[in-house]
Each structure stands twice: as C-alpha cells, then as structure tokens.
Amino acid sequence: MSCEGCPNAGNCNKDASTCGVETNPKNHIKDVVAVMSGKGGVGKSTMTVLLAKSLAAQGKKVGIMDADITGPSIPRLMGVEDQHAYGTKENEILPVVVDDIKLMSLNFMVENESEPVIWRGPIVGNVVKQFYTDVLWEDLDVLLIDMPPGTGDVALTIMQSLPLKGVVMVSTPQPMVSMIVEKAIHMCEKMDIPVLGLIENMAYLECPNCHEHIDFYNKEELDTFLKKVKVPCYGMLPQVDLLRDINMYSQSYTLEQQEKTMDLMKEIAQRMCDDLQ
C-alpha cells in the first residue's frame, strides 16, 4: 500500500506494506481490479458487467463490488434490482448471485432502489471497506470494483485500503472526457496502482446496413491521448443497443445477438487477464 494522499501520512506508526483492510478469512480472492474513469456517464458500470460476464463465460469465478454507494447501478444492469442481500448469524453478508457472478451493492440493502443515500464521505468509505471485509465472497478469481466518478474519498479509500492488482480505465472519444480520465490515471500513478488498459466506449457507430464504422470524433485524438498517458487501448466499442440494454438481454435479444456483444468483450477480457498474470 502507499501512504501518498493519506491525511495521516508521516504521523502514524503503521508500516505502509501492512496498512490495509483484511478480508474475511473465508474469502480467497486472487485478483482485485477496479473499473474507473473519473468521469460519469461513460459506461463504467456497463463495462464492469460485460467484463464480469465475459470472464464468467471463460470459466472464471467472478464477483462485482458496486462501490458507487450514492449512485449504484449494478443491480439494475444485472436485472436483479428487486433482490436483497441478507446476513448470517456470524454477521457476514451474503452476496446476490446471478449467472454465477457474485454481486454486492448498497441497493440490495435499501427497501426501494430509488431511495437516496445521504451520507458523508467517511461513512461511505467505511461501507466500501465492509463490502470487502464482511461480504462472503469465498473463492474468486477476479473481484471487479465498479468505481464512482471522480478521484475523491471512495477512490482514495479503495486505493489505500484494498489490495488492487490494477485499474481498467473507461473513456469515450470526447476531448473533455479524456481530460478527466487523465486526472484519474495520474491519481493511480501517485498511488502506485498500475493502469492495466483503457476501454474506449461509444467510440463509433456501426451502420446497420453496410456495417461501416462511423467515427464521432477524430481518431487521431485518441492515439495522441494514449501516447500521452502511456496506457494501452484494450478495445473500442460501438454505440449500439446491444451494449446499452444489457439488463434486457433475455427479454429483448436473441442468443445470436447476445453472443455478438460478448464477442466484443472477449478480447478485452483476455487482454486484462494476460496483464494480471
């Protein structure tokens, strides 16, 4: 762990290498990866769900921790917004399981998903820690953390307290978004957390007739940005209904259409796995 950015840096007796949150001894999590952007509305949660589904399809044991405490969206994206999490007599929290993917979100703990969470930063940070320590994740190959926007309390808590193996950044082609994503990348650098790669979401439009790729912005701007931040691009995804409506797969899309979406993520997930080795 790194002391940089901690308000108690230099004023405590803890060893930086041991300053972190200890998970439940029943949990055995191989890799913890955060999905981050710094900017809202770029599809972080969608990418988290698609990565989880792709990894699970490869036979890996996967979990998703929804760290966006005040704006959780994982339950709805996974089609389980009406479910709730429950505890055991040992005060452990049982995750909701969908398609063999273990999930934890604050929306599993409120009566109504639209009920607001009006908490200050320290409380939010402690809940994030509890999602790691108190949830019975058991054996996982990868725990994906769906990060909230920004570089504030939650991001700092996760980077300082949890054993992150790396971060996957999500961006969109707009120059304004790239600037905010760059801030998040620099935060990871300061915290000594490796940025594994970047997913460019909503990068282009695919013509439904001729399948031509129509770019929204100058592709050279992305190349310049990637060279500047020295982060590899894991993949570029189109703006299509198949990615937008992942919570409605079983109701609205055929198996062939679902497989088309997963094919878009297969290489991205594999590249992430290779970098985690």
UniProtKB/TrEMBL annotation:
GO terms for molecular function: 4 iron, 4 sulfur cluster binding; ATP binding; ATP hydrolysis activity; ATP-dependent FeS chaperone activity; metal ion binding. InterPro entries: Mrp-like_CS, Mrp/NBP35_ATP-bd, NUBPL-like, P-loop_NTPase, YlxH/NBP35. PROSITE patterns: MRP (PS01215). One of its GO terms (biological process) is iron-sulfur cluster assembly. Keywords: ATP-binding, Hydrolase, Iron, Iron-sulfur, Metal-binding, Nucleotide-binding. ATP binds at residues 38-45. SUPFAM superfamilies: P-loop containing nucleoside triphosphate hydrolases (SSF52540). Binds and transfers iron-sulfur (Fe-S) clusters to target apoproteins. Can hydrolyze ATP. Belongs to the Mrp/NBP35 ATP-binding proteins family. Homodimer. This is Iron-sulfur cluster carrier protein.
